User: Fold these one by one.
Assistant:
Number 1:
Amino acid sequence: MPLLEIKNVKKYYSTPRGLLHAVDDVTMNIEKGKTIGIVGESGCGKSTLGKTLIRMEDATAGEIWFDGQEITGMQHHEFRKMRMKMQMIFQDPYSSLDPRMSVYQLIAEPIQTYKLAQGKKDLEEKVFGLMEEVGLAKRLSNSYPHELDGGRRQRIGIARALSLDPEFIVCDEPVSALDVSIQAQILNLLMDLQKDKDLTYMFITHDMSVVKHISDDIAVMYLGQVVEKAGFEELFARPLHPYSKALFSAIPVPSIHNRRERILLKGEITSPVNPKPCCRFAARCPHAEDICRQTEPKLRDMGNGHFCKCHRAGEV
Amino acid sequence: MSKITTPAMVKLNKKTKGRHKETGNTPMQEGLKRLRKNKTAMAGMIIILFLIIIAIFAPLIAPYGYQEQSYTEVRLGPSLQHLFGTDHLGRDIFSRCVYGTRYSLPIGLICTLLGLVIGGGLGLVAAYFGGRTDNIIMRIIDIIQAIPSILLCIALVAILGNGMWQLVVAITAGTIQGMTKNVRAAVFMVRNNEYVNSSKSIGVSDFQIMIRHLVPNAVGIIVINAVGVVATSILTISSLSYLGVGLVAPTPEWGAILAEGKQYMAVAPHMVYFPGLMIAITVVAFYLFGNGLRDALDPRLK
């Protein structure tokens, strides 16, 4: 049984111009101990999806089953216990840590919130234990976030998420605000932690080289919908959706001789407000035909665990 | 080989002793250290403490009683017998000013604290929850604000009667709306920060988020406002006394002394200068201290 089952989850926001379809009909399963990478450009709803899963935003429709329990319909006091198991690591380690709190206070906050420590001594032990686990020196416990570099701050964010012993962590672009050299350190830390604690990640990013590094499965999102989904090797070897192809062609190749042809997308992104029932990528797709502009494609099984939401998948 | 120690090293060791704890100082210690290093804040604090001491020991410090009249010494200028001179009834202004600390200071402070708790609380709730809660609270505040605060005070005093506590209630009522608006504005600026979301995602309760994240991050503006309110409260007492609805006649409240002196400003300006000076010194002291406090509370300023 998968740890997380997401069934037809929708998240709409009402705006003055109409309903904004931030997440539209997303269905996927996430297996325990695996990492699913969610890729897509800014504004495609990947962060909203992550937030909806841990109920920072309430889903408009759909079901989310975590560990055999449906969570979208839960009352707040019921969900409290589940929340401990689902945590989030935020994108920007500069703004996601309260500047008035010391490292110690920041890491102690979740433990105090759920009263997981017996007395001051126990709390201290737990906080220092977590700091060691994420690679923060003990002497930093009374420092403030602004005194530390981005990597160390993100380690604080990771320690906060880990402090409640979660099973599932939404990593919302955890390395995109960091230096490339530090990105690797944080990614390695996340992978080590996954191995040690059997964690399940949803890794949201727009950086294809990062997702390649860490994911088992990858889902490509475009305007609120999952347009392609497959195991990471399968997807990198055989991208089917024209949007995925364009995304993959944007990964820089570290070689001056091997110049790949890049697919440049033209046209505007379709508005996510009251979208028409057609392929949402049709306006920018180099292979779009009449059918693409008239009916919405379904997420089709293309074999080998590969799903693609395109009328012309396999043809072009 | 034995270690080499020079006098300079010994001196340095002494200086840095205690600083090399494994984990450094706690936030509280750091804050106090910053406050102590801030000279203007310390100056403000010393003046405030000095005023409090004067208030406590007023009968010992004042050379005359505050309503002791002497008809042979009317409207005398400052001299050694009467440091601040005498008023139109021959009362010693210095003594009256000394006794005045017993009224102006506590009323100013209590009104501010009450206003901060009630108004600040309302502003905090309004800004944090937003939407309908915000709308209801702010419309009520708007209605209160439509009544001029001095009129509100007079009306309340008229209903409740004269006296210290009635005055406190009246002045507090006048400060609430300003406090609510200021705190709301200050909290609005910090409530959309990502760290608030981060705490929400962990499951921290709304109350904890307000107390532990929003208030500390908005505290700079709140403190500065509160200090301003201490000053205006003291001035409001004075205006009310001047209008005759404040403290009753012989009470040596600074504003009342000032008000009495106004009539004789042309012939005996000292009757206005000294109580005015006392108010000014107090207000400035609170401002200095408030500024320093704001800086001490912010770990980013070192």
Note: The domain at 4-85+206-308 of chain A is CATH 3.40.50.300 (Rossmann fold).
Number 2:
Amino acid sequence: MAHEAKSAIVGLGYSAIGKVYGRTGTSFALEAIKNAMDDAGLAKDQIDGLLIQHGITPCIGLGLQNAGAFKNMRLVNHMNAMGATPATMVQYATMAIANGLATNVVCVFADTPLQDPNAGAGASMFGARDRSNIRGFQALDLHYSPMTANGGYAMGARRHMALYGTTNEQLGAIAVSVRQWAQKNPRAAYRNPLTIDDYMSSRWIIEPFHLFDCCMVSNGAVAVIVSAADKAKDMKSDPAYVMAMAQGYPGNEKRAGDLHDTHTGARIAAKTLYAQLGVGPQDIDVRSLYDCYTYTILVTLEDYGFCEKGEGGPFVQDGKLGPGGSCPTNTGGGELSNFYLWGMTPLSEGVEQARGSAGDRQVAKHDLVLTTCQGGFLDYHASLILSPNATY
Amino acid sequence: MTTQAQPPVGRPIPTPDAASQAFFDGAKAHKLLLRFCPACSRWLAPASDACDSCFSDQLEWKEASGKGEIYTFGIMHQVLHPGFKDEVPYNVVQVELAEGPRIMSNIVGTPNDQIKVGMKVEVMFDVLSPDVTVPKFKAI
């Protein structure tokens, strides 16, 4: 029996992205929404839903409906499942449309963590954080290390290395493959060649993570527009049909026996996702995975069953994730080399691949595109299977 | 004009708050205190507000053995706080305590390149000021 699409992503819009200074989150978000509406061929008065997420900086919120003078909206919310949110926004929009709450729903994300280094402040998003009021257990953790997300993921990778023998060379193979894709993407921030030697000789951030294990930080916004599947063929651009959608949250007991660092919510989501189409990992043509760190790709590949648990290192080491490989993954360059706007990075490339608009990096067979978003320290996970076809 | 010497900047010394006062009082007395749910006989991390099994907030403070092993660790090279400028590279670990909970800490007295996952450790107490002592761990 053919499976029908649940909805369609009919518009995709980017703002200027990267080291773009002196603009507000609202400005980025409205630019991205305008470009998404133009992409879909929709006028503003045809938009009746607005789902909103901001990133590291609280730069947009519910006020966006006023800033953009969106009138007669039927669905508005400020969403948060951290990095997983963009996939969840598409899911909630799909459910709202199916239940008659809205017709054309904008899902938008914006962030402005980078400040102009020539304007006196450091470009680091952490440099200006005031910790003087931290007390109690938070202050105790700060005494041990102000390590941020880098530390959480690095320690997860360390656990994986200790249990399964995963190596830095294997994590580095991921960075190299993703960079090879980025070289085919005119949008990507980092398009210079990256070798395994470059990776191994790059400075440590927090061992076992080198510089090139870690994503960049970007300013900007991305918006997508979700509509009913049967309306998509009337839109200006080819759609990316939403064929399956799922979420997964593993909980972290932080206690003996908990496998959180090496087993993620993707394992929960994968079961839901594959069951909706009666497919498995062997049926996926392209992967667009959240890659805040190289390790996130490795553990996500395992948890979606592309290889066995613990086999991620050997699996990626031969370069099969890169151009020409048997397992094309993060074809836009990901958060490691393209841009970092949380879950909008994998979602936007998932849409590009599914609808066939990825240019030089387009994967020839792209019937099923796995798109995953990950947040917190492997705490929040959501995913979609996107397709150029309305049935499977 | 004379310039006044800047005091050395070290790691930030934590200030106890109401929720953590008993824990810091314990550390000052060289005791590692955890939360304990008497209904479940379940040990919980010091920052727990309620039992994660029965959801009761009727928790006790109870002294732990101080024994455990390194669950995972990192060697930090970034200076994300000025107090760590002279500390990098330094270790940060998750210790899995014999009682079950995993807590963040540092290992004292072991070179970075000799720290291993699974290494057996026990608590020691780092006196940061006359008022504040914090638990850390050493290899055994």
Note: The beta strands of chain B are 33-37, 42-44, 60-63, 67-76, 90-97, 102-105, 120-127, 133-139.
